[in-house]
Specification:
4 helices; mainly alpha; single chain; 128 residues; Four Helix Bundle (Hemerythrin (Met), subunit A); 83% helix
Length: 128
């Protein structure tokens, strides 16, 4: 489970970074609770929250793929793509000023592709 463990560590570092960013923006905007009315804080909270929402299923899928004898190169590629996607999505979301940042879309699209690929692969190879 080396691939999954590495992914968990990478996601943990990204999660920590986004969480620290929320704290920094809270201090700058002097907002102790909730999102307040500052768009920077809302973006920081959403980058952190969106990662927390999507990461568990992706990590479980990667673990299941790794445990089901899926090709190591595929599992490594999906795990790497997922970690990069989450980082890009968060950076893009945090850095949106007036219009959507392209990194947000790239990260979101890659996130969905990894989860879809992993899900379909598992279903296909376990049931057929």
């Amino acid at each position: 489970m080396l691939i999954t463990t590495t992914l968990i560590a990478a996601i943990g570092v990204i999660y920590l970074g986004f969480g620290i960013n929320v704290g920094i923006v809270r201090a700058r905007t002097q907002t102790l609770l909730g999102p307040g009315d500052d768009p920077r804080l809302m973006r920081a909270i959403r980058a952190h929250g969106n990662l927390a929402e999507w990461a568990p299923i992706a990590i479980l899928l990667i673990a299941a793929l790794e445990n089901s004898a899926a090709p190591t190169t595929m599992v490594t590629g999906l795990a790497s793509a997922y970690a990069a996607a989450r980082l890009l999505h968060g950076i893009g979301l945090i850095n949106e000023y007036g219009k959507p940042h392209p990194l947000r879309a790239i990260g979101a699209f890659t996130n969905v592709i990894v989860v879809a690929w992993g899900s379909v692969y598992l279903l296909w190879h376990l049931w057929l």
